[in-house]
Structure formats: C-alpha cells, structure tokens
Structure prediction request, 266 residues.
Amino acid sequence: MTGTSDELLTVAVEVVRAAAELARDLREQGVSGVATKSTATDVVTAADKATERYVRDLLRERRPGDTVLGEESGQSTGTGGVRWILDPIDGTVNYLYGLPQYAVSLAAERDGEVVAGAVRNVASGEEWTATRGGGAHRAGRKLRGSAVTELGQTLVATGFGYAAARRAHQARVVAQLLPVVRDIRRLGSAALDLCFAAEGRVDAYFEKGLNLWDHAAGGLVAAEAGLLVTGLAGAPPGPDLLLAAPPGIHRALHDALVAFDAAGGP
Ligand code: LIP
Prediction:
C-alpha cells in the first residue's frame, strides 16, 4: 500500500487535526504525567504519549501495514514502502508552560523520501502543509520564504539542547552570531520554526541536535517554500546541524555557522 503524495497528505491532515484536538483538550484539563528523559529539563507529558498512541491508532485504521516512527515509542515494523514520522507534541516545554507554540508534526516518507507533511499549531489552529514538488501552503495560500539578502538584516530562529555542556557551546555560537544578524528568536518548536521560516515570519532557522521527527514535516514545508534545507559543509540536514535559509542569505549564514562551529561541541 503506497499512495500518491496528495493521498498521503490527505491522511496526514486528517490525523494531525484529530490529534491536535486531543492535545488541546488534554491541555485544557491540565498537564499531567510529567516525566523527564535525557535530562531534568527534557520533559514528556501524558499528553505526548496519549497523542502518539491516538495517531498510531488512526494510522493503523487508515494505513494498515505502514511503518510509524514516533518520538515517544520508537519505530513499529511495517510491510509497505511508507513510513510515517511523528512528533506528537513538538514544543513540549511550551505545552508544559502553556505558551501557545507547540504542534503536532506528521510526515509521510515513501521509499526513503519525505513526500508529504503537515504541521498544526495546537494552540492557534494554524496548519502548514506540503507535498514534494507540490509547494507549501497555509490557509490556501502558497508560501514563499524571505527575500532577505543581507545577513545583518536577517532574523534567525534557533533552539538549544537539554544537556548543559551542549547548551554552553550553543550559547557561545549565539553570542558570536548575535552581533552580525538582525536578531535571534528562540520559539521552542523546530517544526513551527521551520514553518515560520517558510512564510517569512523569521528569515532563517538553524539548530543542532534535532531528531528526524522534529524536522521531517517542517523541513519539507520550508523546502517547498523555496528555502535551502541543509547541513553544513555539504552534509545533509540532521542531528549535527539543520539550516533552513532562503537562497539570498544561505551562503552567508552557512559560512558564519561554520566559522562559529555551530555543528561542533558536545
Ligand atoms: C523540541 C524542538 C526544539 C528544541 C527543543 C526540543 P520537543 O522538541 O522542537 O526545536 O529546541 O529543545 O527538542 O522535545 O519539544 O519535541
């Protein structure tokens, strides 16, 4: 069972809408079941787990046999060529604090390539979608990234890991970057950072340490909006570094990140 990119997107949109409704209802009941993962600040809530279970159930109904990779319970074994890549609540710390910047992110990967993706801000209801070669959209509008061409005029979003040693290195990178760009924003959800970059609410985004579920859907949205989504020095986007920037400043920002060792450190 494979399916066209548009068919896979239809499933992704149906599922993220239902999952976002559950996550919103659970938030309104109050956050519960808070636990930690890699460090004392790397939190997971009962809602993360419940939302992932719900998405898995919905996908099992709609796409029996497909593989699902989710942040909270890993990868199931599927039989077909389609893998769903899920972050049930991206921006969990924002969810914990009630900051309206957290999303359900779901991508469909067919034969190893992400071909469809949907990201839905649970709090605002804003929804970004994309298919490979079909463009990126929000509210029926085709998205284009920023036209900025000067690094000093570039508003850059980024994020930080949970381990103190990595955060210390990332702080040194940001301290060097801050004087040479317009400003920095740390909004707390990679998926939404990528969607914001896709429509120019920020000009660019970079982060070290992302997992595939953080950026699979949002990275397609950004790429389909015309941004270059890469790693550094010819590497693909991944845990070492993900950079999403419009062609006008990708090279300048890339070179600054290389100079500041943004992909380095612990
Ligand atoms: C989050 C990312 C964010 C990063 C956070 C965290 P989570 O994902 O979306 O960009 O800076 O540290 O990793 O844990 O909320 O799914």
